[in-house]
Automatic annotation (TrEMBL):
Organism: Spiroplasma eriocheiris
Residues the record marks as active site: 51
Family indicated by similarity: Belongs to the tRNA pseudouridine synthase TruA family.
EC number per UniProt: 5.4.99.12
Listed HAMAP family: TruA (MF_00171)
SUPFAM superfamilies with a match to the protein in the record: Pseudouridine synthase
Name of the encoding gene: truA
UniProt GO BP: tRNA pseudouridine synthesis
Name this protein carries in UniProt: tRNA pseudouridine synthase A
GO MF: RNA binding; tRNA pseudouridine(38-40) synthase activity
Protein task: Formation of pseudouridine at positions 38, 39 and 40 in the anticodon stem and loop of transfer RNAs.
Length: 245
């Protein structure tokens, strides 16, 4: 039996989604919860490999069960109740074995910046910025990333890794949500390691005059002699908010 879970989590205290031997991860905790309830091992695959301290509002996880629960809804609620308080199974759907959990049409991430007073109850979910920001200017700078580019210089990918670093940013926009919350939305079919965080910090660096739009364009062109960016925003401001199939 295949189930598609909609998972939410506060990733601040976790070493990302992917299960690791000596680290606390979201996948690891989810597998433990299923085993506590069913006493059986299972297979699962997440749609997005969120990094350490990155959050999710709409992570999708495909789970293969070796049995069929009498009451699937009650079973999932029981599993969710046995998870840590910062992980929750929001919903589930029954799928067939041919469903590709990573064959998404689009993913949307949001990076949150607080340019006002310290918000002690939300500091785990946002980057604190010391001065008021001009949203229109940020939005203008952000458009440099829209379209298809080689994001090698804006990623954690090493030269020896055989990973395709060409990605297409469908849309990126910046808005102010309330007095002191700035949201940077980024939509694409797929991303690579650290890509969004590097994009965000480069937008801020350009805003501050540390680099120019021409510098960003040169790095996006990935011309001989171009170097990887040294700017990378903190992970805890980033959240996976929507996956579309």
């Amino acid at each position: 039996m295949y189930l598609l879970l909609t998972l939410q989590y506060d990733g601040y205290d976790y070493h990302g989604w992917v299960k690791q031997k000596n680290a606390k991860t979201i996948q690891g905790e989810l597998e433990k919860a299923f085993f506590r309830v069913s006493h059986q091992q299972l297979w699962m695959l997440g749609s997005s490999k969120t990094d350490q301290q990155v959050h999710a509002w709409d992570q999708k996880v495909l789970v293969k069960l070796s049995f069929i629960p009498k009451d699937v809804g009650f079973f999932i609620k029981t599993v969710s109740a046995s998870l840590p308080l910062d992980i929750n199974i929001k919903d589930y759907e029954i799928r067939d074995e041919n469903f590709g959990v990573r064959n998404v049409l689009e993913k949307e991430y949001v990076y949150t910046i607080n340019d006002g007073a310290v918000d002690i109850f939300n500091c785990r979910y946002e980057l604190k910025y010391p001065r008021s920001l001009d949203v229109n200017k940020l939005n203008q700078i952000a458009q440099v990333f829209v379209g298809t580019h080689d994001f090698f210089n804006f990623s954690g990918v090493k030269k020896w890794e055989s990973i395709n670093t060409i990605r297409t940013i469908n849309k990126i926009w910046v808005e102010r949500n309330g007095h002191h919350k700035i949201l940077i939305h980024v939509q694409a079919k797929a991303f690579i390691r650290y890509q969004i965080r590097m994009m965000v910090q480069n937008i801020l660096a350009c805003y501050e005059g540390k680099i120019s739009l021409a510098d960003i364009k040169t790095q996006l062109a990935n011309l001989p002699g171009s170097k990887k960016t040294s700017f990378c925003a903190k992970p805890y401001g980033l959240c996976l908010v929507k996956i579309t199939y």
